[in-house]
Amino acid sequence: MKIKFILTAILIMNLVIARAQDSLQKQIDVLKEEVKSLKSDENSHFMVRGFAQFGMDATSSAMNFNMTSFNPVLLWRQGSNFLFESELEMEYMNNEFSLDIGYANATYLVTKGLSVKVGKILIPFGTFSERLHPSWVNKLSTAPLGMGHMDGMSPMADIGIDIRGGLQIGLSKLNYSFYVVNGPRLDDGIASPTDAGKLTFENNNDNNNNKAIGSRIGFLPFTNSSLEIGVSAYYAKPGSETSPFAGDTMNQNLNYKNVTAMLTAFDLTYVKQLSPISGVIDIRGQYNLSNVSNATYYSSIDSMQYTFTNKSSAYYVQFSYRPSMVDNDILRNFELVTRYSAYTTPKYSLWYSDQTQMEIGLNYWIGWRSVIKFSYQYTDGTIAGTGTSGMAGMPGMSNGRLAHATTPTTTTTSTSSSEMGTSNGYMFLLHLAIGL
Amino acid sequence: MKKKIYIYALLLAAFAASAFIQGCSSAKETLANKSGAQLWSENCIRCHNGPSPTEFTDVQWKTIGMHMQIRANLTSTEAKKIVEFLQSAN
Lengths: 436, 90
Fold this sequence. Notes:
Distance between the termini of chain B: 56 Å
Oligomer: heterodimer
Number of helices of chain B: 4
Radius of gyration of chain A: 28 Å
Largest sheet of chain A: 16 strands, antiparallel, barrel
Largest sheet of chain B: none
CATH superfamily of the largest domain in chain A: Porin
Number of strands of chain A: 20
Number of domains of chain B: 1
Structural class of chain A: mainly beta
Number of strands of chain B: 0
Helix content of chain A: 10-25%
Strand content of chain A: over 45%
Shape of chain B: globular
Strand content of chain B: under 5%
């Protein structure tokens, strides 16, 4: 009887334990599944990155805290082929707050070497605007002359479609981008006579029935990807379909429908870690050319019609060295940078300028994407219509983001070209840029 | 003016020769046999400093990898290998 009781008890205990184990195993399985789904999350992922900056500039006459901006970048990946990306631009500069969208687009990876991007895209005209514009990527505090979005020289962002990709060709690599966008507008000079003949980019609405087309081809001849040579071309008809002077008996003959704009750019990048010099050298440059066909403009300043050869050019060459391979923890975070840039606009236009700029800087990297930049900049040359050395509206200060800086260069503004030129003289800049 | 052009041409030639020598030294390493670590060190620094693998989680690396593949026009093989390296070192 006693044995029977013990056996029954053991049996019951076994059943209880088995049941508990089963329940525990089920819980473990559920937890495993949850961990697995959290760990892989293959299908959808959203993240916020971006960059922020803060800085100051000083000349002989003024010292300003400036360059304050916060640019969150939103990334949303859906599966392995779809990505949505957007950059918001929040900025306070020269007593003005601006909020804009630098880019917002969706990309679908069609095949291994081809993707299609639609929306507001960064224009791959050269490399500066698309790849180097974030303040923590650009090694100097300012954009080179003629490369800023206020210069009317090169497209930086626009709405349209971009087909792009990278391919391996033997030991070399080739990357390409073909795009169709709304395109620039030709400033007719009605709102701002001193801007007549200038191109304005980043227009949300097109002013005619045609579209701008462009392309950039990049070639990396070496397997270590150290050298990239790029060629860009961009063609547009920037004039409106009808004469902006319709109804004006004196100027109704002025029509810009058939004006064409052909822009080209050449870029070169050479970046290599070299053991003999215990660090990384970075050499890069870009040469932009803008050729807008001749047209007659009306100046309300002196009530005269006039014309000029509408050609502009800009270039920069930059060299930097960082002793990243030395043993000293502090020394390897320093980086020496120097850049020379030049910008020439049409000589007989009312926005003529012919300037050169030299900048030398010393950076200290406090993290791989956070840097303190100190630089000295000297700008010299001719700016039409200037008699002042005010610092307002410096295009070079607008490299932290791509959209409107201190003064938008749209046809709706009355800002004169002279206000948009980089002032001559020297400047010291101290700048903190943080990638997030 | 001619002297200036000559100096620029000379500098360009010296640079091209130096770049060519550097490139040739690694010409035997095709993309197929390059590791993700090597591709990471070669490609990221073309625009910015190379990130540490521990900066982001595996899922984040996948999203960032796709973002950079599109932005820098990396080949799909490069992007895949770089992301795998960053995830494996995490």
